[in-house]
Amino acid sequence: MAARVEIVSFGYLHDAPPAAHLTVDLRTHFRDPHVSPELRTMTAADEPVRHAVLNTPGIVDLVEATARAVLAFASGPGGGVVTVAAGCAGGRHRAPTVANAVAERLRDVGRDGVRVYHRDIAQAVVQR
Length: 128
Fold this sequence. Notes:
Blueprint: E1 4-11, E2 22-25, H1 37-40, H2 47-54, H3 59-75, E3 81-88, H4 94-108, E4 114-118
Parallel strand pairs: 1-3, 1-4, 2-3
């Protein structure tokens, strides 16, 4: 039986990272849409946020590399669930956008059973 894949997005400012086989920390190396007043209250459910995140240099390469890593984990003999955690500061912009993009990439290459859960997307905007 093929390994299932679960991708969890989260915000480091809300709680500890979830347990995962692979954790992608987006806080330091990728521009935060939160700094733009027009994007601050939006989430990854909004196209302007997705556009801003997915057009950040390096993000598309990171999505592709993460998808390849998931496929490597899933090809092992252990089966079960492969869990990926994608985290940013508040869990509303970068992490859920990247989580959705990784899931989409995996589905594009024929992976079934990919589930995405956004732990903190509905949290209030963190004032910082």
